Amino acid sequence: MRGIYTNVNDIRKRVYAEIAKLSYNYQPGDLAKMSQIPYNVIPGVVSTYRESAFLERAIVEERARLAMGLNVRSHEEYHDPAFDAYEAIKPETYYKAPLINVIKFACHKCPDNTMLVTEACQGCLAHPCREVCPKDAIQIVNGRSVIDKEKCIKCGKCKDVCPYGAILKQERPCAKACGMKAITSDAEGCAEINQEKCVSCGQCLTNCPFGAIADKAQIFQTIQAIRSDVPVYAAIAPAVTGQFGPDLDHTQIRSAFRALGFEDVVEVAIGADLCTIQEANDFLKEVPEEMPFMATSCCPAWAMMAKKQFPEQAKCISMALTPMVLTGRMIKNKHPEAKVAFIGPCTAKKLEAMRRSIRSDIDFVLTFEEVQGMFEAKNIVFSDLEKTESMHGASADGRGFAVAGGVAKAVVNYIQQEYPDKEIKIASAEGLDNCRKLLTLAKAGKYNGYLLEGMACPGGCIAGASANQPVAKTAKAIANHQKVSTAQHANESNYKNILDILTEEDWTAPAED
């Protein structure tokens, strides 16, 4: 449902806006005001979205807790909405697993992996569905096909041969979208996430039509840092272009984030240029002498999938620091006292930021959806904002990291600029199912000598779980932004001289868990 603004998106944004309002106006003792948020989002007694306004408010309560970075409550006993909310105000608070959560009483208990004969069945004379069924699970009753659920093995042969397309294979949308096969059903039929398999890509969140799956946020923690004496810098992912609608031009992004209280804005596309250089040099040095192929490192869900399912091939993922980390380090190298909030479309970046070695580089991770709620809370009118230069002048290739294929293209372009006679073979995949196929072939030796790019989200970062805009629309906006870049390739970056400093092994001591 990417690119379609639905009731689910609307509720998410309104909850984020309420948490942002609470955060900007917070005074000690105000956490009890969390109890009011469900009534602000769902006023009155007439339901809008579900069978009961009371159920709607109960769901909003859990969404508000997750937006504060808190866990979903156990409903076996009473806990008020602000239960354990004091955990959110601790300055050392980081994201804590699980990041992606199912709100059980919001789950529709969708049927999963079942064959369904619809009203489109014409009761035809041929009955090819019955003829091809290997388990004799289809009978003709009153001229129409009926599937015996006990016999059916869900092979789909009946669906394939029906001339009217009258047979459907129903799958739970969240489970269908999950490239890790991490979603099953609990004893009550509700969706359940196997956290051992989950890589926090968030595709289940995007594809649940009932809004029953939500991720944790750090809106409160970020705004409290903004309100403190410590400067907070916004490190904004390359996918930002166009994400907040046509009224926010890329020349106004700096002004927009300053209006939220951030000290300044740095585009992570600069870090992407530095990542490009590091990955290109690693590829030239290590392939094929030290490893059969090299895979890109910047998508945390892809990297985590490889580690879980292809541990040997995961050793071939580049050790280059990701653009997010490089940008965070660059900011803190210049402003050691500052805090850094990474802002992008990706829920898996929250997973990356949980790593002990990353915590000193990135203090907060927010999504575009969450920041949209902050803009709502502050009543910021984009058309009133001052226009400035286009942030900090990353290359066109660095800005292209947001689109599937962009990372590998940037690396190849850099190598060709530095070594014109060097030929680089690449293969790429988008979506975790396709990424798995890519690594399966790599494991079989099909991609020896190649540079592999994996993106967990179909379309790349611009299709991240918390992107605001349609993929095609954002891709066009980024292409236009690339055209006004002062540099084309990473080798032209004005920041490349700092790379050695940022990649020193002991640049910063990892924080404790």
Mean pLDDT across residues: 93
C-alpha termini separation: 37 Å
DSSP, total strands: 15
Strands of the largest sheet, in order across it? 10-9-12-13
Structural class: alpha/beta
User: How many helices does DSSP assign?
Assistant: 20
Rg over CA atoms, rounded to whole Å, is 25 Å
Share of helix among residues?
Answer: 25-40%
Oligomer: single chain
Low-confidence stretches: 509-513
| Molecular shape | globular
What fraction of residues sit in β-strands? 5-15%
The largest sheet is:
4 strands, parallel
Q: What would you say this structure looks like, in words?
A:
By secondary structure, this protein is α/β, with parallel strands linked by helices. Helices cover 35% and strands 12% of the residues. The chain has 20 helices and 15 strands. It has helices at 7-24, 37-41, 53-67, 128-132, 157-161, 173-177, 203-207, 219-227, 253-259, 269-286, 300-309, 311-314, 323-334, 348-353, 368-377, 396-399, 406-418, 432-443, 471-483, 499-502, and strands at residues 100-102, 114-117, 138-141, 144-147, 167-170, 183-185, 191-193, 213-215, 232-236, 264-267, 294-295, 339-344, 364-367, 425-430, 450-455. It has a four-stranded parallel beta sheet, with helices on both faces. Strands 11-15-14 form a three-stranded parallel beta sheet, with helices on both faces. Helix 14 links the parallel strand 12 (339-344) and strand 13 (364-367). The radius of gyration is 25 Å and the shape is globular.
